[in-house]
Every structure is written in C-alpha cells, then in structure tokens.
Write a structure and sequence with these properties.
- This is Glutamate Aspartate periplasmic binding protein GltI.
- Residues 14-231 form the Solute-binding protein family 3/N-terminal domain.
- The chain is of the alpha/beta class and 317 residues long.
- It folds into two domains: 4-101 and 203-307, Periplasmic binding protein-like II (D-Maltodextrin-Binding Protein, domain 2); 105-200, D-Maltodextrin-Binding Protein, domain 2 (3-Layer(aba) Sandwich), CATH 3.40.190.10.
- The chain is built from twelve helices and 14 strands.
- It has helices spanning 4-12, 37-50, 66-71, 86-91, 134-144, 157-165, 176-184, 213-232, 239-244, 248-259, 270-277, 281-288; strands spanning 15-19, 28-30, 33-35, 56-60, 77-78, 94-96, 101-103, 105-110, 125-129, 150-154, 171-175, 192-194, 202-204, 207-209.
- The protein has a five-stranded mixed beta sheet with strand order 10-9-11-8-12, sandwiched between helices.
- Strand 9, helix 5 and strand 10 (150-154) form a beta-alpha-beta unit.
- The protein starts with a helix and ends in a 29-residue tail after the last helix.
- The model has no long low-confidence stretch (mean pLDDT 96).
C-alpha cells in the first residue's frame, strides 16, 4: 500500500492543510490563528500523525485551487467545506475520506425585500462564489419554480459577502452552515434572513489525493474516532479520568486504536492524543457551530444516529 504521504508528513514534522479563503465557523483567521470546524479536523489529523495538534500549516485556497492543490501535493489534506460529489470523487484525482457535516445550500436575503421564501423572489441577482457547484444547484431549483436569476460571481467568500452587503445582489447563495456564520459578519445581521428552503445535498468532509490508500484510511479513521468518542462518552475533559478509573468504553476505544496503530503507521496512543488535544465530535461542533459558538446551530441531521441524526462511525473492533 502506498504510504508516501504519511512518510512525507513525518519527515517534515508538520501537516499541510488546505482551508477556505475565510468562512466564519468553518475556517477563518482571528489574528494569526486559524479557527473553525474544518480547522479542528485538520488539527485532529495532525495530533494523530505527528502527535501535536499545533504542528500544522494552514494554506488558504480559492475554490478552483482546492483539488489541484491535493494532486500537486501542495497540501496533504483538504479541510475546506468541500462537498463530496460523484464527479469529484471519481474523476478529479482526489478521494473524500469521510463526511464530517451534512448540509445543503440555501440563500441569505435582505430583510427589507419582504420575502420569507425563495419562491417570492422575482428575477433576483445572486452572489455566488466562483469555482463551486452552487450556481448549477440554484438554477435547477429555481427553474422548477419558474424563477430566473442572474448570478454575480466573486473569487472569495469575503468578496461575495461584501458584494451582497453593498446591495450589488439581492441574495447570497451558500451552504446553510457556513452561510449562518457569514450572516454574523455583516454589520447588522438582523437585517438579513436565511430562507427556509434547502435546494441541494451537501455532504462535506476532508479530501486527500487519490492513490494513497494508507493516508486515506488514516484521515477516515481520525474522523470516525471523534464520532465514536462522542458516542461512548469520551471527551477531552474526561479521558484521563476515565483511563485512571478503567472506564470500559474508554479503554476499549483506545486499545482498539492502538491494536492497529502499526498498520496505519501511527504511534501507539494516537487516539488518546486526538481526543485529549482536539476533542470528540460534540466538542468540535459545539465550540465552532453549536450552542457554545455565535452560530447557535442545532445538530439536526448531524446528531448521532442514537439521537435522531445520521452521524455514525463503524465499530472500533
């Protein structure tokens, strides 16, 4: 099995992670620090591979640069709210390791337009990011309702938001989760509403270069680890006490991870480092997107399978 990627990361001593040009809640900069949901999954991979979640370089990419940056090995992993689609996963020379969030596209509109539904819009001008599939999805949805629109394209999320704020556009179309964060960056968020309609399926997660099966497995099982840790009640705050108290769920999870560590070319204890340094899925979601964040998003379908959602990790056996 090809193991070039993990060898390169260990020799470098640092993970290179591709992120967005700045989407609040997902991957964005505060001063010199990168924060967000996608950022934390990059840190989780770094904790697993090099033992330190801070050993990571974030590289901000335009949408049209994302997949080529994997193919030419500019980045080792892509964590930038990229949607897994059939064509991308099959014909772009990349592979999506696993899904971290399930979302769908919607629109932000100016409250003073007096609309509460997409169906009330009349020939709107819509802000869109270049290099995404949003325009195709939006066109298909609006055509079903006899609505034509004009797309205005911007190269970065900031430019799209600024164009919308300047009223160059009536609406801004984006995935619901990041759009919730982008709304909060406007001077008066209450002057803007997100319509209730969702017009696409957007399963998103980290992607890697195709052809390195070992690296794909490493990233996949780091993601699954965060989900399983939430499922069995192991968190960054509880893990050490659970180990000391010989909690059976915590011990089973960590022993199962250690049992295959050599096959993944990871050091024993990698799972402990991920959970201790970054946390389980609940912790990652809540601090970036959930009730401990400004976004205040409910988990919805991103809740665990046992709590009415579709989030599910294969058994650690």
């Amino acid at each position: 099995m090809n193991n070039e990627t993990i060898k390169r990361i260990k020799q470098r001593g640092q993970l290179r992670c591709g992120v967005s040009r700045g989407i609040y809640g997902m991957s964005y900069q505060e001063g010199q620090s990168w924060r967000g949901f996608d950022v934390d999954f990059g840190r989780a991979v770094a904790a697993a591979v090099v033992g330190d979640a801070s050993k990571i370089e974030f590289i901000s990419l335009k949408p049209e640069e994302r997949f080529s940056s994997l193919r030419d090995e500019t980045v080792d992993v892509l964590c930038c709210n990229a949607t897994c689609t059939f064509s991308r996963d099959s014909a772009q020379g990349i592979t999506f390791a696993a899904m971290t969030v399930y979302d769908g596209e919607t629109m932000l509109v100016h409250r003073d337009l007096g609309v509460t539904s997409v169906r009330q819009l009349k020939n709107p001008t819509v802000a869109l990011q270049s290099g995404t599939t949003t325009d195709i999805n939006l066109q298909r949805f609006l055509q079903q309702h006899g609505i034509s629109f004009t797309g205005r394209y911007y190269s970065t999320p900031q430019e799209a938001l600024d164009g919308y704020a300047r009223r160059e556009c009536d609406a801004y179309a984006l995935d619901r989760v990041p759009l919730t964060g982008e709304r909060l960056r406007l001077p008066n968020p209450e002057d803007h509403i997100i319509v209730p309609e969702t017009f696409s399926k957007e399963p998103m997660g980290p992607a890697v270069k195709a052809g390195d099966g070992l690296w794909e497995k490493v990233v996949r099982w780091v993601i699954y680890l965060t989900i399983e840790a939430e499922d069995v009640g192991v968190s960054s705050e509880s893990i050490d006490a659970q180990i000391a108290g010989k909690n059976p769920d915590a011990l089973h999870l960590l022993k199962s991870a250690d049992a295959v560590s050599s096959h993944l070319q990871l050091e024993p204890g990698w799972a402990h480092q991920v959970i201790k340094q970054v946390g389980n899925y609940h912790e990652i979601f809540e601090r970036n997107l959930g009730m401990k964040s400004r976004l205040k998003l409910e988990r919805g379908m991103n809740a665990l399978w046992s709590k009415g959602g579709i989030l599910y990790a294969p058994p650690f056996k």
